[in-house]
Amino acid sequence: MPVRDVVFPAGRQALYEKNRYSPAIRSNGFLFVSGQVGSREDGSPEPDLKAQVRLAFANLNAILKEAGCTFDDVIDVTAFIVDPHTHFETIWPVVHELWGDAPYPTLTGIGVTWLYGFQFEIKVIAKLPESAAA
């Protein structure tokens, strides 16, 4: 069985070990990133919804950076929103601030009822730059 090529962002390894999952795995030229939420260093949710979305992107970008990527390398996004009917209009303008310019990645949005105390989660697949794919 091949060993997983795990990417850990600085300062958050204990959180992933506690919850028993990898933040991201490099495989065949791609980076598969676990869903990222707006968690503080201790894993607790950021209470302000807009700040929570910004923190989710900051956590995502820390993983991308550790793997040698940026959000421009992201090709597929899955966004989870608790009660999107209520929260979409607050969340989506913040996402647009952080999304970057066209062409945009593909997107699947999913409304959910529970995210472990969070309101937003973002999961991505990125194409590793040639220098980071080895």
UniProtKB/TrEMBL annotation:
Q: What Gene3D superfamilies does the entry give?
A: RutC-like
Q: Which InterPro entries match?
A: RutC-like_sf (IPR035959), YjgF/YER057c/UK114 (IPR006175), YjgH-like (IPR038743)
User: GO CC: one term?
Assistant: cytosol
Annotated GO molecular function terms are: deaminase activity
The protein's name is RidA family protein
